[in-house]
């Protein structure tokens, strides 16, 4: 069925009357936005029913993608684009007397994620739907998201992100499908005719209410679902306590349940925070598995074929409790033996690893499990015992047994649980997967080598080219047609236009227009005036020391010092743009944000830098900001310490929009280099192997004493800038260490190489024809990083499900 402008206009008017009791003449922008969302939701709901009926009738294998994050961004334009009705919706809104861009801009970013992990999950859900794979995403319906970042006196302040105020129009609550989750209490067991009987009693109950968000695929009637769980207490209030005037105590149970789905990643540097995080993870896992197994039994009447009709992909270790929870359901509820249940579990669950950082491989104190999840703890102990015996039998090496243990010395290791209980473990770039095999999970790989795979990450190229960069989309269509939208590999046909002066000139004009558009946006949003004649040099990503925003800062300080020494020097104008959130408890990351803002204040107020050097920290970086920024970016900084970044996806989005990469051979940069070569990106720094060797004898103080440029830059950290704040703590951390080795992420080791590569960037930019040709090659060779390709890899090598080719 096609949807005309008039049909959409009528649907919006009807939603205004039925849902908000008003006409378009009385409606606010927010009501118009929500009415548009409801109109699109109705279209998708009809298609969703058809999709479910087809999946049910054909008994197709289902994919269940579990992630604690889904960074969906805004959905109104995206769903309209995928449904093929964005022009009609735009016209309908305009004819109702509203500005379509203003209405689209009203929608908040859905507060369901933080960084690359969540954005990847969102891209994958889009591709699974576009490829007609029956799939459901699962997460938590966070009331207040992660946080809204505010910069006050140069420092990050976290504010609640009340995204549901307008974003709830996409959600369809289904209280009739609620699941009950049990925490605490005690477990009694007894054997009856050879069967273990388990009684869990005196527990606290929490209800998980599903709120479904429909996801439309591109150029298909297939619709999938993102199921978000909202935590509620089954007992709204203790009436007896309330009647006695103990109002706060009367609400205790409800408040505790509500807290589970309030905020993503609550601070966990205290016992209560750790407890809440574990509750979140089990709540999410238990609700999801109860829902999946209930649907399976309704269709097949048994769980014995569960693994044949379902595959559960867990995105990082946060959903790892799916393994003992599935065992609990199969043994306690379905009455299967341990061996039967373990065989089903081991053929149902696959694990994607996203990190090589030891501190990010989740672990939990045994005491938390014993207290919060007594039955799960019993199952975990048996999994750990059997796995340990298997490792012992294979290696006969106590050190390897300890390293691979699921439980050891009172600590539960979630990555080892995923390896023990999963059918596949994949990294997310070729380098990352190689490091997992050779280093992080070396012993596990030695025991079960066929379990370890690679699926390089990808991004939704339709969103990150066509939807957000219409000028570039138009150029691509004029050159090679629109086939790239469903077959991203077609982008390679652009390479033949590398010598076409008209195409290169148009590409440069598109970039200039996008820079102007972003500058207008930044002026409206943040009150900053950007120099659009300068190179837009961009680093936007989660703030972490290994991502090395501080290395970028050190280089900018050196540029500033050069200008101080010679204000009349020949200097190509550069605007450095940062965007990053620091975890609330990550003190060093917060200090780096303050340093960036101190430096920005110093440089932007110094007359010698006017029209030459500019530094801007973009507040509250989010998906909708990235959609404006990436088409305008010219240099993409991907400068993590080699061997530390699993993959990255921002690097791919920048590449698709023609930005040139300044980066290390880390994560997916390695595969970008394979398709681009040295001539189309700017590489610097140590390789992963070189970095590993250097660490054995690394002394950053020697570099400080031998390099006068570096010496002066680091001394500036101690002195600080015009705001009077000293950054001697960062100086000390780099040269002497504190709670970590000195210069743990090798900033000083790569400093000279980084500065030289940055100089090459500026020199190359001066040759506009060469730069534009390099930009075109980047776009042409980015198709391999489409999420469609990634999902096809998962479908072929791990899930074994058919998909639309």
From TrEMBL:
GO CC annotation terms, alphabetical: cytoplasm
Entry EC number(s): 2.4.1.1
Highest taxon of source: Bacteria
Xref: CDD domains: GT35_Glycogen_Phosphorylase (cd04300)
InterPro entries on file: Glycg_phsphrylas, Glyco_trans_35, Pyridoxal_P_attach_site
Modified residues (N6-(pyridoxal phosphate)lysine): 653
Cofactor(s) of this protein: pyridoxal 5'-phosphate
Role this protein plays: Phosphorylase is an important allosteric enzyme in carbohydrate metabolism. Enzymes from different sources differ in their regulatory mechanisms and in their natural substrates. However, all known phosphorylases share catalytic and structural properties. Allosteric enzyme that catalyzes the rate-limiting step in glycogen catabolism, the phosphorolytic cleavage of glycogen to produce glucose-1-phosphate, and plays a central role in maintaining cellular and organismal glucose homeostasis.
Family: Belongs to the glycogen phosphorylase family.
Name by which UniProt lists this protein: Alpha-1,4 glucan phosphorylase
């Amino acid at each position: 069925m096609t949807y005309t402008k008039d049909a959409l206009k009528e649907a919006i008017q009807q939603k205004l009357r039925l849902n908000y009791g008003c006409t378009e003449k009385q409606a606010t922008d927010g009501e118009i936005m929500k009415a548009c969302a409801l109109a699109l939701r109705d279209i998708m709901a009809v298609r969703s029913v058809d999709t479910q009926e087809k999946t049910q009738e054909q008994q197709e294998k289902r994919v269940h993608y579990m992630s604690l994050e889904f960074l969906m961004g805004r959905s109104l334009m995206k769903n309209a684009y995928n449904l093929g009705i964005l022009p009609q919706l735009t016209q309908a809104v305009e004819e109702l007397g509203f500005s379509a861009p203003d209405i689209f801009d009203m929608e908040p970013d859905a507060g369901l994620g933080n960084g690359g992990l969540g954005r990847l999950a969102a891209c994958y859900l889009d591709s699974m739907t576009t490829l007609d794979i029956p799939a459901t995403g699962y997460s938590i319906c966070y009331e207040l998201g992660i946080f809204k970042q505010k910069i006050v006196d140069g420092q990050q302040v976290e504010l609640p992100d009340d995204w549901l105020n307008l974003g709830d129009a996409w959600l369809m609550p289904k209280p009739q499908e609620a699941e009950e989750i049990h925490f605490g209490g005690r477990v009694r067991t007894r054997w009856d005719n050879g069967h273990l009987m388990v009684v869990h009693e005196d527990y606290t109950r929490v209800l998980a209410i599903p709120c479904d968000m429909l996801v439309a695929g591109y150029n298909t009637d297939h619709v999938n679902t993102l199921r978000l769980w909202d935590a509620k207490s089954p007992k709204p209030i203790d009436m007896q306590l309330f009647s006695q005037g103990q109002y706060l105590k009367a609400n205790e149970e409800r408040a505790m349940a509500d807290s589970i789905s309030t905020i993503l990643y609550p601070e966990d540097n205290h016992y209560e925070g750790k407890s809440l995080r574990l509750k979140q993870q089990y709540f999410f896992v238990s609700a999801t598995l109860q829902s999946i197994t209930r649907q399976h039994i309704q269709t097949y009447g048994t769980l014995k074929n569960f693994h044949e009709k379902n595959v559960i992909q867990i995105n990082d270790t946060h959903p790892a409790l799916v393994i003992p929870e599935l065992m609990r359901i199969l043994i306690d509820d379905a009455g299967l033996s341990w061996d039967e249940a373990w065989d089903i579990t081991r053929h149902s669950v696959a694990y994607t690893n996203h990190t090589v950082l030891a501190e990010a491989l989740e672990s939990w104190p045994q005491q938390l499990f014993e207290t919060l999840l007594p039955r799960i703890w019993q199952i975990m102990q048996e999994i750990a015992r059997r796995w340990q015996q298997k490792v012992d039998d294979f290696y006969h090496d106590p050190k390897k047994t300890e390293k691979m243990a699921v439980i050891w010395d009172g600590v539960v290791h979630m990555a080892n649980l995923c390896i023990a209980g999963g059918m596949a473990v994949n990294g997310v770039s070729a380098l990352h997967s190689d490091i997992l095999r050779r280093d992080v999970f070396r012993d596990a790989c030695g025991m079960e080598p066929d379990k370890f795979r690679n699926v390089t990450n990808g991004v939704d190229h339709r969103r990150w080219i066509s939807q957000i960069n219409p000028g570039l989309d138009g150029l691509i269509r004029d050159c090679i047609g629109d086939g790239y939208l469903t077959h991203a590999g077609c982008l390679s046909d652009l390479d033949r236009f590398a010598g076409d002066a008209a195409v290169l000139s148009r590409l440069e004009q598109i970039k200039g227009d996008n820079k102007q558009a972003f500058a207008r946006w930044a002026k409206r949003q943040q009150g900053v005036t950007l120099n659009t004649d300068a190179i837009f040099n961009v680093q936007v990503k989660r703030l972490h020391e290994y991502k090395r925003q501080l290395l970028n800062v050190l280089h900018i300080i050196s540029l500033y010092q050069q200008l101080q020494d010679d204000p009349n020097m020949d200097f190509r104008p550069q605007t450095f743009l940062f965007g990053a959130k620091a975890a609330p408890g990550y003190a060093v990351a917060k200090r780096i944000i303050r340093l960036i803002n101190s430096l920005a204040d110093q440089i932007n107020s110094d007359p010698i830098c006017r029209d030459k050097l500019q530094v801007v920290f973009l507040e509250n970086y989010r998906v909708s900001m990235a959609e404006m920024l990436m088409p305008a970016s010219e240099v993409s900084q991907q400068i993590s310490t080699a061997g530390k970044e699993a993959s990255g996806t921002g690097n791919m989005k920048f590449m698709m929009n023609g930005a040139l990469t300044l980066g290390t051979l880390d994560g997916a940069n390695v595969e970008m280099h394979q398709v681009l070569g040295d001539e189309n990106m700017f590489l610097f720094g140590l390789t992963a192997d070189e970095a590993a060797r250097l660490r054995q004898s690394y002394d950053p103080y020697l570099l400080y004493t031998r390099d006068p440029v570096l010496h002066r830059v680091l001394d500036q950290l101690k002195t600080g800038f015009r705001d009077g704040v000293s950054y001697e703590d960062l100086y000390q951390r780099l040269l002497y260490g504190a709670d970590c080795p000195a210069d743990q992420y090798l900033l000083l080791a790569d400093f000279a190489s980084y500065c030289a590569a940055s100089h090459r960037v500026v020199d190359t930019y001066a040759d506009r024809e060469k730069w534009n040709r390099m930009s075109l090659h980047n776009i042409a060779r980015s198709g391999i990083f489409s999420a469609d390709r990634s999902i096809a890899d998962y479908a072929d090598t791990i899930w074994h499900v058919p998909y639309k080719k």
